[in-house]
Amino acid sequence: MRTKLNNVVKVRKVNTEEEFETALKEILILMTKKKSIEEKTRYGALLEAVKEYENGKLGIDKVNLPALIHFQMNQKGITQNHLSILLGDAPLTSKLLSGKAEISKKVAIVLNKYLEIDFKILFQDEIEKESKQEVLRLKNSVNFSGRGRKKRELVKH
18, 25, 73, 152: which could join 78 in a potential S-S bond, CB 3.0 to 4.6 Å? Predict the structure, then answer.
């Protein structure tokens, strides 16, 4: 499942159900223990590999937020006019429903409260971007212990 090359852990792409199950078991093990930098990197890489497999094989995609908002509005009996009153901004509501506006904290709170849309769905793009940045940060921190200096080796006297 992995090869080690210059302190960087490589995780192969998950292609089969068996590899998927193995990766999930390893993720569960890594979740429950205190991790070294190498294990944190491996954990992040495994999460990405599993996510990629799920998106490709299981059809789990990002939620179409404007469509979800429209659906929830229909379910709750809320009109676009009512939503614009709740948000306090008619142009913002129009942009939000067409998918052209980004979700602010205020908008997320209103959508969560009145339309019962989970915050994880509302901020899915930001969460994905943050997780990718964290994985890259961990991969880059494996080789260095400071500002570009190589890892210090212990010297016995």
Answer: 73
Rg of the chain taking only CA atoms, in angstroms: 22
The runs of H, that is alpha helices, within the chain are: 17-32, 37-53, 65-76, 80-87, 90-98, 105-115, 119-122, 124-141
Pick the CATH number of 65-122 from 3.40.50, 2.40.128, 1.10.3110, 1.10.260: 1.10.260
pLDDT of residue 7: 45
The answer to whether residues 110 and 87 touch, using CB atoms and an 8 Å cutoff, is yes
Domain map of the chain by residue range? 2-61, 65-122
pLDDT per residue as tens digits for the range 56-107: 765 556 788 999 999 999 999 999 999 999 999 999 999 999 999 989 999 9
